[in-house]
Amino acid sequence: MGVNGNKLWLYLKKLEFGRETPRSSTAGITASTTHTQGQGKLVANLNEISVCNNIDDTITMPSATPGREVRIANNGAKKALLFPDKSDDLGKGKNKPVALGARSTVTYWTYDDTHWVKA
Predict the structure, then answer these.
(1) What pTM value is reported for the model?
(2) Sheet of 57-60, strands arranged across
(3) What is the tens place of the pLDDT at every residue in 83-118?
(4) What is the number of domains present in the chain?
(5) CATH code of residue 95
(6) Rounded distance between C-alpha atoms, residue 36 and residue 46, angstroms
(7) Contact by Cβ (8 Å): 59, 37
(8) What tens digit of pLDDT does each residue of 7-22 get?
(9) Phi and psi of 105, rounded to 5°?
(10) What does DSSP assign to residue 55?
């Protein structure tokens, strides 16, 4: 899935075992200017950040649940910091953030109650 200007085409269904499985989505997210873990909490499977005006504005992943997929598109003007939920790990260590560049998209999968892997 790619970013095309300010438009992001979100696929709301995924083919899974021969049937369509609905996915939740949230567009128009504003990244938090507080720059701390727990702010800008994501709740959907597909997330579009439309406003990220400052370098390292923050969003926070939902809690890790085995088998969960979360996709994030940053359509904001600046790089965002993506924090894991409290005590989770995005691959950089427990509670450590990762950068999400402006005009970029990332997908994470979780295989247990703590660890996310970049797809």
Answers:
(1) 0.80
(2) 57-60, 80-83, 98-100
(3) 999 999 999 999 999 999 999 999 999 999 999 999
(4) 1
(5) 2.60.120
(6) 22
(7) no
(8) 333 333 343 444 455 6
(9) -130, 140
(10) T
Contacts of 76 (CB under 8 A, 6+ apart): 31, 49, 50, 51, 52, 53, 57, 102
Give the range of the structural domain holding residue 24, as residue numbers without chain letter. 3-118
In this structure, what token pair is assigned to residue 50? 């439309």
Q: How far is CA 73 from CA 16, 53, 70, 101, in A?
A: 22, 15, 10, 9
- From residue 19, alpha-carbon distances to 13, 15, 25, 63, 67 in Å are 9, 6, 19, 26, 17
Residues 119 and 117: their CA atoms lie apart, in Å, by 6
Rg over alpha carbons for the chain, rounded to the nearest Å, is 14
pLDDT, averaged across the chain: 86
Q: Which of 10-14, 29-33, 49-53, 97-101 has the lowest mean pLDDT?
A: 10-14
Quick check: helix, strand or coil at residue 54?
coil
3-state helix, strand, coil in the chain (%, to 5): 0, 45, 55
